[in-house]
Request: fold
Amino acid sequence: MLGATGSIGRQTLDIIRQHPERYHATILSAGSRVDELINLAREHRPRLAVIAREELYPKLHDALAPLGIETAAGPTALAACVEADDVDMVLTATVGYSGLEPTVRAIAVGKDIALANKETLVVAGTLINRLLKTSSSKIYPVDSEHSAIAQCLRGEDLASVSRLLITASGGPFRTWPAEKIAKATPYDALKHPKWHMGAKITIDSATMLNKAFEIIEAHHLFGIAPERIEAVVHPQSIVHSMVEFADGAVKAQLGVPDMHLPISYALGENLRMADVAKPLRLEDYAMLTFERPDTARFPCLALAHHCLQVGGTAACTVNAANEIAVAAFLDERINFGDIYNIIERTLATTSFVAAPGYDDYVAINAEARRRAQGFIGI
Ligand code: NDP
Ligand code: MG
Reply:
């Protein structure tokens, strides 16, 4: 489990806790919250616990060695641990670019992936698909929209798909005028109306870059052409996404907004476990509404089709610039409206590789971060 202490990580451990006969977390890892990782390891008794921040290693080791739990630290150990023989499936639930290397290594040795870290596919979806062609690995999407689409596509022929309709809650600023959005504070942006998630994806939902990322993610996961993938704003977050077929039929997956459901479906490799989420009572919802997204107020959304059209390392650059800009926004160094401006300026100035290999993504990610930091003045 990459990112055991996060929102997705903890909800995954809820499912593992409920089904010890089926699941065991053999490796737990985190970025820097070492006390939380120690507590989770005490409860779940993995074989190995890994912390990304190396200076926290002594604390992790001293707490877990007496329990016979192995420990390791650093990004290299984190990426290498996915290759262990006792790992059947890797949950990628870290944030941002950090998901790429462990995912590439897991695919190289044929591990299945429960993929929450959408940034991996945004940055390097073409490379990941190329690697999957010569691997026995399968990717099971954790993202609720992609889980919904996978469920709608079961038993269907991909050639008969006419559109993927990815639903979006619209985030906290759905009804705000542009001038007010530009000056929104971190406090405003962290109040997501429907989902309780980590800080970075919550800000991405407020800019709607999260939805742009999900369009890119859907393209790479399902192989559907970009012009057939659209976002639809659905504030109630009950319809998790839809697929339209050639005959005009539209299939949707509905459920209460609860990530336990898509996580469980991915962990079980499309298995329907009992009692995962509260049953949906449609009579409790007076209305389910749908609107066109507004790219004038949410310009980040338009980056999806731009990146897919341009291809190469464009989305890698957008992701890197966004990671820097979101962190700066949360530190109150820049305004909410600057997030898009920094992405746009970084995209316009960073080198572009049309047919990138792994090392090109590493280089472009580093260059884009430097340029974005330069624009912010850090
Ligand atoms: P959180 O911020 O809640 O958790 C992130 C986890 O990753 C934490 O365990 C954190 O460790 C760890 N981590 C962060 N940076 C690093 C790093 N550089 N190296 C190693 N570990 C690191 O995020 P979420 O759980 O919300 O999101 C995880 C991923 O899932 C994201 O890609 C997000 O887009 C995706 N996702 C999330 C959804 C949700 O509902 N939350 C829904 C759909 C997708 P520490 O605790 O020590 O900081
Ligand atoms: Mg989602």
